Amino acid sequence: MKITLFDYGAGNLRSLMKAIAAAGVEPIVETDPVRAIETDVLVLPGVGAFEPAAARLAPGRDAMRQALLNGLPCLGICLGLQLLFDGSDEGEGRGLGVIDGQVTRIAAARLPQIGWNLIEDAREPSLAGLTYGYYANSYVGRPADLGAVVAWSQYEGDRFPAAVRRGRTLGIQFHPEKSSAPGLQVIASYLAEVRA
Predict the structure, then answer these.
(1) Of 18, 97, 132, 153, which residue is the least packed, with the fewest Cβ within 10 Å?
(2) How far apart are CA 101 and CA 192, in angstroms?
(3) Which is catalytic among the residues 74, 78, 90, 124?
(4) DSSP state, residue 94
């Protein structure tokens, strides 16, 4: 199985690459959004800001969006989840629009939220057994259709999606690669689903 991380030029991908390798597959890194979809599984990693990431995505946005809508499995983590939405209040640029809705700032006094948060009302099989997730973010995706939400979290009273799903695309707002053994199991479970 070929797993490709789309690198939009921000942050360290090493911990996510190690987490995927622990699930039994060595991922490759691709900076071209069109070549990134020539894969069995696309991973949108979770480091950076929306505007520069959307700019790097722009040349291949339509092709990537269509590939996901046609069933290419995709795991979006933190910023990767946010790129699945139409756009973000964090900055200019268009997301993939796979999940209808907008990314907004968390309604909280202390941002970014950094640390562990409870995962609530999970109805996503890949999240089975996960109680807490490790977060490092100030923005969250707000889907127009709450049916897309497959798990919730809250921070300072603001309830937001911990995970969203559309078809074979799973977006996770927390960082599974930094969420200890249960977080690594989330990645392994999603990849096992794709293999099946």
Answers:
(1) 18
(2) 29
(3) 78
(4) -
Tell me, yes or no, if 30 is annotated catalytic. Answer: no
78 is catalytic: yes
> What is the model's pTM?
0.96
Length of the chain counted residue by residue:
196
Q: Would residue 177 show up in a list of annotated catalytic residues for this protein? A: yes
Q: How far is CA 88 from CA 13, 40, 110, 132, 160, in A?
A: 22, 28, 20, 25, 15
The per-residue pLDDT string of the chain (196 residues; one tens digit each, 9 = 90 and over) reads: 999 999 998 767 999 999 999 999 999 999 999 999 999 999 999 888 999 999 999 999 999 999 999 999 999 999 999 999 999 999 999 999 999 999 999 999 999 999 999 999 999 999 999 999 999 999 999 999 999 999 999 999 999 999 999 999 999 999 999 999 999 999 999 999 999 9
